Amino acid sequence: MYGFSSSEVIGKSYQQVLRIDVDENVVTRVMEQVLKNGNWTAEVKHFKKDGTPIYIENSVTVFNKVNEDNFLLVTINQDITERKIVQKKLKILNSDLINQVEQKTNEITDIFSRISDCFVSLDKEGHIIYINQAAEEFIGLPKPQLLGAKLMDLFGTGIETPLSSRLRYAIENESYSEFEEQAFKSKRWVSLKVYPSPNSTSIFFLDISERKKNEFALQENEKKYRLLFENNPIPMWVLDINTRLIIDVNEAAIQNYGYTREEFIGKSAFELRDENERHRFNKIMKPGDSENSSTGHWLHKRKDGSTIVVEIMAYTLFYDNRPCRLILANDVTEKIKAQHEIESSRDQLRQLSGYLEKVREEERTTIAREIHDELGQQLTGLKIDLSWFAKRIDQTDRQKTQKVAEMMSLIDETVKTVRKIASELRPGILDDLGLIAALDWQSKEFEKRTGVICRFNHDFSDKSFDKNTATGIFRIYQEALTNVARHAGATEVESFLTLIDQDCIEFTIIDNGKGMGNDLSPKKTLGLIGMKERALMMRGSLHIDSHEGKGTKINLKVPIEN
Predict the structure, then answer these.
(1) Between these two residues, 314 and 464, which has the higher pLDDT value?
(2) What pLDDT is recorded for position 429?
(3) Distances in whole angstroms, Cα of residue 436 to Cα of each of 397, 460, 535, 559
(4) Which domains does the chain have, with CATH numbers?
(5) Which of 175, 254, 337, 493 is the most buried (most CB within 10 A)?
(6) CB hemisphere CA count around 50 (13 angstroms)
(7) pLDDT tens-digit map of 89-109
(8) What secondary structure letter does DSSP report for 487?
């Protein structure tokens, strides 16, 4: 209609594009009427890009009104140039229309048959004396039924309506009138322009139901938007991507940050952020970024200077024809604080657990040594004394010699038991020969005790490990073999100790048992938790992969110091 492309006009003022010379007083009066009534309709003269003047029916509706200084205007423009040409002719013709009806009938008929607006002409009693084809189609009756009928009866319902009242007032007062009302019989909205004269009245009307439907939809959407925006418990604001200024804000943000609405509107987003995060903020505010994104946690400042941690969700949108971001700032300060306290508590519990485990290992070592040394020596002394006694009894006394032999055998079994208890408490081989020898010994002991084939493999020569690391790995292996013996029903266990990049040990234990599946009894669960806690105490990680009927694989990775 105007000949401009969108890129030529977006960002420019209405007057600048259309070259409209408008008095500021007129603009002020129009804006007052728009803000008061919510809409404004008028006929104005515009210019196309090539300079051609056109007449426009200009309908303006207020949308997204925040306050008296912050709102959006939606304008709908319809080219009525042809109609204006006709209207100019009508003004000349109306005064002597009755006297020249016959002379001008053909000319008028030709004119009105070509225009798209509905047109009717009434006599002074309000009867239709002329109607064009567009009006026939709108009313839905043939011309013979319409000529001579009262227009009020066609539009009304037999009772006074806003449309019939305004139409009657215009005709009776012979004053030009322009208004929009609903034709209640048809339930359609019409825009009417009434040109009365002493002997007749000319009326142009247009079906604007679709436009009204769109206007109502806009108003309803604005209400829904406002309801969701204002009543949302999460602080929200709309940020202009180009200027970084806040152009709208909800009540939750006002309450949480302590600023008034007036202080919030126009505030730079930088003012809410910590100085150290401004570079990061600039990076995510580039136009064309992802439409919806979670930008993580940020430090924000309240009006009173206090700092809060917020979790930001940003949604890209166009607001007042500007690229903007809708920001949701969820205050997670207390949540983060609680998480830190939980992590701190976990660290303290883990340190306590590590300390208790260390104390327990030291006690085990002490008890094992005392059992092995003290009790072992005493049993050895008993055996020496019993041997001395055996040599001095009468060898022919079969009862005494048999009893002595039984006591010697019992002492030997007790010695074995003492050694077994001592090794289970703390295998001396772990302290004397190192981790690899201890793991190899444990594998052979397990195979001898259970009959399950147990192979231990490693790909490097013995290495001196930190005592706590060696103990942790050995105890995890013991627990894994215990689980195999108790629950897995396996026939083979194979383990691999590998050195990775000279600073990390990987220990893998694989069995061909029935796997855990959903069978996680409390005893199994506690054992697995204990293994994982031991790994964490060594600053390592432990992963368990088990499927029903496919065995279990335990993978332990532990960093070591060179």
Answers:
(1) 314
(2) 62
(3) 52, 10, 18, 16
(4) 6-79 (3.30.450.20), 105-213 (3.30.450.20), 232-331 (3.30.450.20), 429-559 (3.30.565.10)
(5) 493
(6) 4
(7) 777 776 666 566 566 666 666
(8) I
